[in-house]
Amino acid sequence: MKNWRPIAILPIMYKLFARLLYNRISPTLFGWQSEHQHAFTPNRRIEDALLYAELVIEYSLEFNTPVWLLSMDLRKAFDTVSHEQLLKSLGYHGLDPAYIIILQKL
């Protein structure tokens, strides 16, 4: 299947608009993001997080130090997010109010 193409559900103009919006707001938001955040971060892969976890486990075994690991299933996480609180958080982190209004309208 060399000529496979996915079916686009969203209109192409919406995709272009969403990409333009993302390109404008991402520098502000990634400036606030922790360096330890791996999910949904450009140039970070799950393998990096797994390697880091493996190193922590080896360290804890070597020095007989207890360690806690957390794994979360995020499939349903976004169903429970308060959109009002999310928009307030974006404002708190310095996102231009005009962009917050656009995101609210979307």
Quick overview of this protein structure:
The chain has 106 residues and is mainly α. It contains four helices and no strands.
What does this protein look like?
The chain is mainly α and 106 residues long. It is built from four helices and no strands. It has helices spanning 12-32, 46-62, 83-92, 97-105. The longest helix is centred in the N-terminal third of the chain and has 21 residues, at 12-32. The model has no long low-confidence stretch (mean pLDDT 81).
Descriptive labels:
106 residues; mainly alpha; 4 helices
How are the elements arranged and paired?
Layout: H1 12-32, H2 46-62, H3 83-92, H4 97-105
Helix pairs in contact: 3-4
How helix-rich are the residues, as a percent range?
40-55%
Order of helices and strands: HHHH
Indicate the proportion of strand residues. Answer: under 5%
The coarse silhouette is: extended
Count helical runs.
4
From the N-terminal CA to the C-terminal CA, the straight-line distance is: 35 Å
Oligomeric state of the chains? single chain
Mean of all residue-level pLDDT scores? 81
Radius of gyration, whole Å = 19 Å
Low-confidence stretches: none
Structural class: mainly alpha
Number of strands: 0
